[in-house]
Structure formats: C-alpha cells, structure tokens
Write a structure and sequence with these properties.
about 500 residues, mainly alpha, 34 helices, globular
Length: about 500
C-alpha cells in the first residue's frame, strides 16, 4: 500500500488538474486503518499536497484538506513538528478557513506533546499567527485557536512564552480589535486560569482577570451580561472560586442582584447573576451560599413568581439545581410559605404554561422530588411527599394527564417525575392505589418516540430496583415489570394476523 500511495503522489505532481487523482488518494487513505497508515507513511513527504492548497479551485483545496487531515493524524506530534512547521505556518494565513482550522488543530497536537512543543515554543511567528487567528471573522477558526493556545497553559514554558514574552503585546493588540474578539480573549484567559492556581496566577498578573471583572459593573448592560458568563466559567474551578472570593467578587455580584430592582435594563444581565450563584451553591454548599448571600435566594423566588418568561425559566432551572441535593432541599423547605407558593406556581406552569416553561417546570419538579436510596430518611421522605401533594389535590392524575398530551417532551418530563417518586415508599403506595396506574406504566402503546420509550424504561427500572417494590406492588405486578425490563425499551409484541375466507 505504501508503494501505491507513493505512486499516487507522483501522479498528482505530474498533472495540471489533479482532482481525479486526489479523489483516488483520498479513497485509498480512508481504506487503510490509522495504525496501518502510520507504517505506510513512514519516510514519505507530502509537500505536493501542501503545495496544491495554493489554488483558487475550492474543490481541490477541500480535497487536499481531507487528505492532509487523514495523513497528519497518522503522524506523531514529534514528526509533525520536525517536518511540517513551515507548511502549518503557511496554513494559518491561508484564505480558506478549513485550511486554517487544519493547521491550528495540528499545532494544538504539537504543543500538548512535551517532546514536540519546543519546536512551536521557539517559533515566535507561528504563535503570533495562532493568536491573530482569534480575531478571525469565522468563529470556528477562533475557537480552534483558543483551544490550541489553551494547551500551552499545561506547562510552565508555555505559560512563560504566552505571558512573559512580547507575545503578550500581540494578545493585547488582537484584544483591541472589537468587543467580540475581546471576549474571545477572555474565554482563552478563563480556560487557561481553570487549569491550575499557577496558570490563574499568570492571567491575574497580566491584569486580564481584573479587566474582565471591571466589565461586570460597566455601563454597557450587554457587555455586563457576557462578563458574568465568563466569571461563572472562572468559578468552575475551586482555585477560581477562591480567587473570586478573595477579590470580593461574590459580594459585588450579590450587590448587583440587590441593585437590579432599580435598573430598568436588569432583565438583560440578572439571569446571569442568578445562574452564577446557582452554580456556586451546587459546587460549594447550598446552605452556605443562600445564608451568606440571601439576595440570591430571595431573587430566585421572586423570579419564579414573575410574569417574564425569561425570568421564570432561569428561576425554574435554578430551583431544580438547588433541589437536586439534600442540603438544597432543606434550604428550600426552611423558606416555608414562600417556597410553598413557588411550588404551587411551578405546578401551574407545568399544567398550563408555554411548552418550554412546562418542560422546565417538570424537570425542576422531578429534581426536587428525587431522593437516592441512601438519602431516604423518614424526614426527607416526609418532605418530598408533602411537596408532591402541594402540586395538586390529585397530583397523580395531574402528572398522568400531562403525560398523555401529544408533546413528546411533556410526556417524558411527566414520566421523569414518576421515576423520581418510584423508589420512595410513599410513591409506590400512591402508584398501586391509583386506579389503572400500573397498567399505564406497563402500556407500551403510549409514547412512541425513542426518548419516550427510554423514559418509560427508566421508570420501570426504578420500580424493579427498589427493595420495597415486591411488598408494595405485589408479586404479580413485580413479575410483569421485570418482564418489561427484560424485553427492553423497544420491544413490540407480535400482532396475530387474521385471514378472511375469500380475501385476495
């Protein structure tokens, strides 16, 4: 096969219009497993394919990119660095975006390999071109440049090169291009900062993070909304949260939530502030966050009772997030009548809101009601049972009615609520005492989409796995549920055909 690739390369270099030969080479390369291709390519050079990228023929360029993607993936990062840095550098300034993405992807492979990275770290021009690609109009090019540069943050030499050489000025120059490009640089900074406390230190010392934080309270509310997304991403790591706390950013965001009441444009950035604390509560401690920053919890309840769908949606997602943990459930329960009013509103939205809000309500309710077997203390079981009965006078009928409506996402959302209560003793008692409910569960004719079948299968699996299911549901239903599980989610029972005398 090596000989045939070599002969194809020779043919390609000898014709004026090599489209047909390139297609043959592409087919040949795709037919060889990557491990075998690595041996076939040993010692060969592919300058002819790189040279054919310099063409106005779009089809030719795209074929060359597909061929090079396959070839270069088979080569080791060290081999790439030793033999093709000049070609890759040329690709970074190519007018075709797919060529730029190819070059950036391969440079990313090189910089994350310790034995190959030196070739790139010592090449100021290549790194400068990669940084400039962040300012490209095509988002896919910028994303790949960010991805490749963020890999530098995994080593001290990479961090030194990016933040302690004149490349830092290149970054700042590109950053000044536009608001959009500035936020791409922030995205790179956040990705690098998330790797380790050391990489965060480099970003902080270069003043990128303080600049980002300053944008939180800037005049432009749209920029403020984007800034909070970036700060939320920074808070994903423990060292990032520690840094933000030390800088007083948590207090600043809490004050912004308080101040939002008097800002007519707050609806543009308020959801981001609430999401920030919602994520923080899950990563740290719901109780600690809600007690330290009471403005957050109060605002979530207020938003849930709001009329603005954007506010309601974020509140529902945040309530579901908080209520997914035992500690979060206990925090919500402490809110007493306020949370009861919110739960009633969630039930109303699930029954009769706009479809998107109905789905988000159902998802939030299922998270609030979920208790893992090891979490099922008497107190917590009493809590989830009381919440379920706050949904409606007849909550089982209410949820089942939602599940029979002709919207797959509502059907699945309702089934997830039944799955949430299926492992809890009180839930099983409700199921067996609700007329025809077990038949509803075992009925395969309802919900014909894949998602619906999967959701029903998960519900049945939750019931079967429960240690109390046989006792509560009875052996007959337990056997039928186990049969359902054994047959799988997509089982279709055979329908006997009846022949009619005299029919054709």
């Amino acid at each position: 096969m090596a000989a045939s690739i070599e002969s194809l390369l020779a043919e390609i270099s000898g014709v004026d219009n090599p489209i047909e030969e390139l297609q043959i080479l592409k087919t040949a390369l795709l037919s060889i497993p990557l491990s075998a291709l690595r041996d076939s390519l040993s010692g060969q050079r592919f300058n002819v394919i790189f040279s054919l990228l310099n063409s106005n023929e779009r089809e030719q360029v795209e074929l060359c990119v597909e061929i090079l993607e396959r070839i270069l993936l088979a080569l080791s990062p060290v081999s790439l660095a030793q033999n093709y840095t000049v070609e890759l550098q040329g690709g970074l300034t190519h007018p075709n975006d797919t060529v730029k993405i190819l070059a950036l992807t391969q440079i990313g492979r090189i910089v994350e390999h310790p034995d190959a990275a030196t070739e790139i770290l010592d090449n100021h021009d290549i790194l400068g071109s990669v940084i400039n690609c962040i300012g490209e109009e095509k988002m896919a090019v910028a994303k790949q440049a960010i991805k490749s540069l963020s890999k530098l943050s995994h080593s001290k030499p990479g961090l030194d090169k990016l933040f302690k050489s004149d490349l830092l000025e290149v970054v700042k120059h590109v950053m000044a291009t536009s608001d959009i490009v500035r936020y791409r640089i922030y995205e790179l900074v956040v990705e690098i900062s998330s790797v380790s406390p050391i990489s965060l230190g480099y970003c902080a010392n270069s003043r990128f993070i303080s600049q980002l934080i300053a944008e939180l309270t800037g005049e432009d509310v749209l920029i403020r909304a984007t800034a909070i997304e970036m700060v939320t991403a920074l808070a994903q790591s423990q060292h990032g949260r520690q840094y933000l706390t030390q800088q007083g950013i948590m207090d600043k965001i809490s004050n912004m939530i308080r101040g939002a009441e008097t800002d007519p444009l707050s609806s543009l950035y308020l959801p981001g502030l609430v999401k920030f604390f919602g994520n923080l509560a899950i990563m740290e401690s719901p109780q600690q966050v809600c007690e330290t920053y009471p403005a957050f919890q109060n605002k979530v309840f207020e938003m849930a009772l709001d009329r603005d769908p954007a506010m309601i949606g974020v509140a529902l997602d945040t309530l579901g997030l908080l209520g997914s943990t035992v500690e979060g459930k206990q925090v919500l329960q402490k809110a007493g009548e306020t949370f009861k009013a919110v739960l009633t509103r969630m039930s109303q939205l699930a029954s009769a809101g706009a479809t998107e809000l109905r789905v988000r309500s159902l998802d939030a309710i299922s998270q609030l009601l979920t208790l893992q077997p090891e979490e099922q203390t008497d107190d917590l079981l009493a809590l989830t049972e009381s919440w379920f009965h706050l949904l409606s006078n007849q909550p089982m009928d209410m949820i089942r009615n939602i599940s029979t409506q002709p919207f797959p996402e509502l059907h699945c959302g309702a089934l997830r609520i039944f799955t949430a209560i299926a492992t809890q003793l009180w839930g099983q008692k409700l199921m067996i005492s609700t007329p025809s409910f077990m038949e509803f569960i075992l009925d395969r004719t309802m919900g014909q989409t894949k998602d619906a079948k999967d959701a029903k299968f998960e519900l049945v699996g939750s019931l079967v796995s429960s240690s109390t299911a046989v006792e509560i549901l009875g052996s007959q239903y337990h056997i039928r549920l186990k049969t359902f599980l054994r047959e799988g989610p997509y089982y279709v029972s055979a329908v006997p055909s009846v022949s009619t005398e005299g029919a054709d």
